[in-house]
Amino acid sequence: MSTYSELCRMYGSEVDEEELQTRELFEKPRGERRWLGRRNHKGKERLHNAVKDSNYIEKTVTSTEPLSKNAIRKIKESTKDELELNVSYSLDKKNRWMGADTVALLGGTPENLNAEIVEKNVVDKSIFAVHSKRVNFEQAPGEFDVRSATSSGKGQHYSNFLPKSRELGKKANANQVVIKLPKNSIWKNMVTKMKLRMKKMMVIMSHKTHLKTLLTSDLYVDTCDKQKKKKKNDRGSPEVLNALEPEPDYTNLLNIPDYLRQEGFTFEKFDITFHNQEDNFERQIDELRLEKKLIIKDLRPQQYLIDVSEWCQLDGEVKDGETTAVIVITQLKKNKYNFLINSTIAIDPPKRGCVALIKRICHATTLRQAISHITSEILTARKIVETMRISIQFYGRKTFPELLRDPDEWENQMVNMSWPNQYYHATWANSEELSQVGGKFEWKDLCAMAKRDSKLKTGYTSNDRCGSCNQGKRSHELYFVNNESKLKCTECLKDEFYREVRARRVPIDLETDTADELEYLPTFVPLTIINLYIRMISEIIYKDLGAVGDFEKCPACKSAVFFESTSEEDAKKNQNRSCPCGYSWCKHCDRVPHWPLKCGDFAEWEEKWFLRYSMKHAQGSGTETLLQVTCSCQKQVYNVLLPEEFIECPGCKVNVNMNTMRTVWKHYYYPYDPVERKLIKKGYYVVGEGYKKSPYVPQAKVYTDIVKIPGIKASVIETCGAARDIRFDVHFRNRAVYREHVLIRKGIMEEEAVENLFGTSVYLVETVTAWMYMTNQFDRSVMQTLESMMENRKMLMATLSGEESEAIKECIKKLRKDINYVVSAVEKKNSQIS
Ligand SMILES: [Zn+2]
Ligand SMILES: [Zn+2]
Ligand SMILES: [Zn+2]
Ligand SMILES: [Zn+2]
Questions:
Q1: Which of 121, 164, 554, 624 sits a CA distance of 20 to 30 A from 372?
Q2: Local confidence band at 294 (pLDDT 50, 70, 90 cut-offs)
Q3: Is the pLDDT score of 545 beyond 60?
């Protein structure tokens, strides 16, 4: 779902209280539309001008042979820049990218690799130039040639730059330059083709003129009906698209309070006096500047913004794709400060509110200590919030915002639970090769894009009255606006910002006299909204520049991920999507990837399949009720078919008598309830008969009448069940991947293939079987191939435990053949239907 549709989702039908009170603000515009007013035009044009000529670079590795992840990692490590693969970087940052010229980039690539730098237009994918490195083994090590082929004027297709076609037809009418260069890196064991692709953001001339005309006229004020939208869509002039987005009126204004409730946030402001602090403010801040993981920005004298995002994240986790937390500290008096905690992560309800916060951090002896106290709380909260998201998908009894609001739920979140659904979205459990992997954007670059021209300095004032609401405010709550002609308080500015975001009149210029308005926004707008705003702008700019596709926020790492439009024929890539971080989902329904099943069929299938699969693995042999128990050990969920006398948790081995619901003695294990356990530890309690009486109180029990569970054909359950058993088994996956690494190190295997083959094969067995069943398209040969796939998978696993190179290769080949057959057979069937 794109940011835009994310917004649409938020245009709730309920009318927000706050909006009702300020109804006149949202009155339907009469006459000339307000959001086409001059100021916003200017803002948009300025933004457009600021980014239209900017260069982006993206490093991707492509190869004629499939490359293993390990090989890709090695290539990445061997190139001497800090560019992550497949991330678009802005080339505007002066010092950082001064050296990003063709020669330096090629020089940074590994030896023995043919590397190319491809300059291309992202609008139409045409290529302006190809610079290729020619490794000449007769030259001294450290030297290589560069051959540049450039296209004059319009871009060309890549094939036109290949030496062969140039000699034949001179299509590219290119100039060839050969430069001899000293080489600086030596790298062995890798002969493959690598392309460093330089992305050049350019707007073709006609496009530019077109845009200008549109921007300065009010021509398209009334072009909102659907037909015209479609037509313009086809013509592919992207700037028209966002102008044609639904007209902001009551029904489709972004509901900000609702968005905040859905996403969660922390925005806490309070004054605090530290009694135990001796060092002065500036010195403490200077010391904090030495912390590598903190980013400190000077806002005004005595006011600093500290980006603590990295402190709110564990080492080794996938890096957050957005700013998640900042703390703004303003010194009021010697040891008296104003603290502002602004985070996208919600914290425990009883821990919110200034009184509670002050109490917890006022004893800190340094600011650093206070900050780390806050960040470790956010870190804990983050883990709980994550389990909440998993648990709503599992139980579905409460919505996410409801869980966030309920203090009991915060206490009861089972963070150590192995959830049956926790790997559903993992690419290894689905299939990376059957989904479209999006391009991740660097958050800093998106922010840079959203910035407005910076002023020289930030004007500031003493305590005064706000020029808008006339309330008396303290100096750090006031901003000069319109060239120091007026004062506005943070509350008024926030209202103004919300008003603009609501109507999607972006970019927003509050006209504050600050060096960089975007950096000051976190002092009065929740980060959750600022991040949404940055995504909105980026999407609009990119589409203005001609990019065709969707922006999405990765549900796992929160990165802004761009998915280019795919061709209509490639249905699987139109449906399954993955973030480079390893999270995948369905483009249309946000659920687990499920191609070739359509969303509706999948929803129906999933519901009964989940229960039937649970029954397959349930304890007991009753025929009346399926009971799903979330054990009190908070580690395991298990199923029982009732009636049954005894049940046992596979995690903690507690044995329960179903007639009395009391735990039963099991040699070596005594389950006690927590109170008793504490008493025993303290020595108040003698181990004896008492344990027999302790009642078993699971975290959750769900009963389902077996007769009400829709049936599925036994053979389908059999096939799908066998696939599912391995599909989400993380231990199996880890063992296989580990074993493969060992074999690669020993030189028995050449490249990584196992993760993808295993993921794709079991994914196909489960979903294609379900698809044939749900859509009545039984196909004997597909069915047989699926069966042989399971067999070949087993064989591959068996050969992996040995060390015979040829046998492994053979198995991989067979499995690959099966996969290709099934995919093409399904595609053929689907195209016949449609
Ligand atoms: Zn005000
Ligand atoms: Zn991600
Ligand atoms: Zn779907
Ligand atoms: Zn248990």
A1: 554
A2: very high
A3: yes
